[in-house]
Amino acid sequence: MTDLILGPVIAAVDAVGRGAWDWWIVAGLVVAVLVAQVVEETAMSDERPGWHRHPNGGGWVEDTASVDETAYVGPDARVFETARVSGSAWVYGTARVCGAAEVSGTARVSGTAEVSGAAEVSGNAEVFGAARVSETARVSGDAEVYGNARVSGTAEVSGDAEVSGNAEVFGAAQVSAPRHVLTVGPIGSEDQTLTLFRAETGYWVSVGCWRPDGATLDDLTAEVQRRAPDHADEYEAAMALCRVRIEEWEVQR
């Protein structure tokens, strides 16, 4: 586009130098040319084969995806692949809904958040910030997932639960209240985040990329002794808090 603009500008300046036109005429000509070219460039940017702009919000929707007219897709948001957005759900900011994911009800997905795989976000749930919900995870009710949090596997986050910060909730998680997730960090030699969450039976614990299915505090103790024995005291203090929370969950069951 730069070359297209410079051509008319150079020609106009040359005309003034030869006394052909007055400055005000040249200025008007240049403005008209710039406006015309910006309009043309904008029109070209709306031509994207296999995609269309959603009428409610103007966001891009791939033709293979499905978005109800009542749903809102903001101008910088994207819904693609075979994803579905229905009801009065909103997708805005630079959020992405892709794969076979579904966003329904009055749910909100915003910021740079992404909902992918076969995940579902429904009810009044909100996913925002840089959060990710993937695989077959479910976020519903008034739950919120935000920050850099990750929800994956067959995890269920519901009620008024909050999953935030660097928390990672996955596998058979059953999180329905804010106190069903506990994070401690930075911790250890690599300044990672320890996440403890309530599961369908019992609890699961993870630290950074160490996230075996069904891991217990005993498993974590063994891993710390193997990989970071110099930080054993720090981990033991964190696990003492975890034990208090686990006891609380057991009383509630």
Chain-averaged pLDDT:
88
**Main sheet summary:** 8 strands, mixed
Helix content: 25-40%
Overall strand count = 24
Tally of helical runs: 4
Shape: elongated
Task: Tell me the strand percentage band.
Answer: 15-25%
Coarse structural class: alpha/beta
- What's the arrangement of strands in the largest beta sheet? 1-2-5-8-11-14-17-20
Distance between the termini: 65 Å
The Rg value, from CA coordinates, equals 26 Å
Q: Please provide the ordered H/E string of secondary-structure elements.
A: HHEEEEEEEEEEEEEEEEEEEEEEEEHH
Low-confidence stretches: 1-6, 8-13, 39-44
Per-chain topology:
Elements: H1 2-17, H2 23-45, E1 51-53, E2 60-62, E3 66-67, E4 72-73, E5 78-79, E6 84-85, E7 90-91, E8 96-97, E9 102-103, E10 108-109, E11 114-115, E12 120-121, E13 126-127, E14 132-133, E15 138-139, E16 144-145, E17 150-151, E18 156-157, E19 162-163, E20 168-169, E21 174-175, E22 181-187, E23 192-198, E24 203-207, H3 217-227, H4 232-252
Parallel strand pairs: 2-5, 3-6, 4-7, 5-8, 6-9, 7-10, 8-11, 9-12, 10-13, 11-14, 12-15, 13-16, 14-17, 15-18, 16-19, 17-20, 18-21
Antiparallel strand pairs: 1-2, 22-23, 23-24
Helix pairs in contact: 1-2, 3-4
Can you characterise this structure?
This protein is α/β, with parallel strands linked by helices. It has four helices and 24 strands. The strands form four sheets. The protein has an eight-stranded mixed β-sheet with strand order 1-2-5-8-11-14-17-20, with no helix packed on it. Strands 3-6-9-12-15-18-21 form a seven-stranded parallel β-sheet, with no helix packed on it. A hairpin with a 4-residue loop joins β23 (192-198) and β24. The chain is elongated, with a radius of gyration of 26 Å. Residues 1-6, 8-13 and 39-44 have low confidence and may be disordered.
